[in-house]
Amino acid sequence: MSNHKMGFLLRVTGFILNIGAGTRDTLIAFLALGLISAGTARPEGGGTAFVMRGGGSVLLAKNLDWPVGEGLIFVNKRDVIKEAFGGSGSAALRWTSKYGSVTFNQFGREFPFGGINEAGLAIEELSVQAEYPPPDGRPSLNELQWIQYHLDTCRSTKEVLKSAPGLRISKRLFGLHYLIADRKGNVAVVEFNDGQLAPYSGDTLPVAVLSNNRYAESLRYLGLHQGFGGERWVSGGTESSERFVRAAMALREYRLLGQRPLLDHAFVVLKSVAQEDTQWSVAYNIPRRLVFFKTRDHRRYKIIPLEGLDFSCRSPVLMLPVTTESAGNLTRNLIPYSPQENRRLLESVFRALREKGELQDTPPGSVVQEMAAYPELCRCRK
Fold this sequence. Notes:
Blueprint: H1 3-17, H2 21-33, E1 46-54, E2 57-65, E3 72-76, E4 80-83, E5 94-96, E6 101-105, E7 112-117, E8 121-127, E9 140-141, H3 145-153, H4 157-163, E10 168-169, E11 176-182, E12 187-193, E13 196-201, E14 209-210, H5 215-222, H6 240-256, H7 262-272, E15 278-285, E16 290-295, E17 302-305, E18 318-321, E19 328-329, E20 335-336, H8 339-356, H9 365-373, E21 379-380
Parallel strand pairs: 9-10, 17-19
Antiparallel strand pairs: 1-2, 1-14, 2-15, 3-6, 3-18, 4-5, 4-21, 6-7, 7-8, 8-11, 11-12, 12-13, 15-16, 16-17, 18-20
């Protein structure tokens, strides 16, 4: 059990033991019903993401809160023919990438945690207690390749929402939900609850924030706080719903005051919701197609402009360790893709997660090797 999970259980247990019997019975009933949401959903890591708008720009920003900081940044190509890894259904899902992208990957190339494509679409995942649909006639793909598929094939949030119902996620590792934004400022959350797709956008997405509770649960908790219909003050806690409230309040204050440049304020907000295990913080300036990020050990801005990157299929795939010490424009730091480094990353990350007890069902070595070799099955369209 992770330190976060153990700490939360100890705090709840201590609190319950020190209150009166009647109150204790009521609290236990609330917990059983899931009506106290703070901290109830950090199943395999955490994080906080949000979308900010201002000065004609749109930023999607996220903290990765996770026990492992290794990762690779990939420059993914257009015109690549792919088939879903380990998918199942009436037909294998096959597609050809329309758009190049830059992604942050910890489980190897083609399985990103998030990224942005050249058309101006950004997607990030966060852990949640998801319930994916059971097998049916739809083609399936895993929860990380779902991100790459939509970066490959969609140019807008609307296109993702149109595509998602025709696919089924076949879980490999995690329960996830997704925050999506495009260059026009259209935002959506996609979740999978009770075996059903649950999208939020427009009027059903009043706050462009996501953490590790289901979106509706987070909104209910937010409604208890000042400025959002309730009386509670914003807390400094690290649990999922507390981070959601802090981020939502920070976005509200920026809309009212807007004193800092948008990018600077985004990283201030990311810092306010950071945890002890925040490994990297990333912000995508979507209209300008710029990637900004920092890591826990290197706090200077690192920048990757998509403008000028060669996304043609015939040029080499490029990559860069997330943990690079370099700062500023990293375009010249990108190096050709190495299958050996891709395999090493996967083996190292799975080993670290096993040691830390963060994955309940670690895939066998043969599956890890298949994941590492999967990019070699992708080929350029003639």
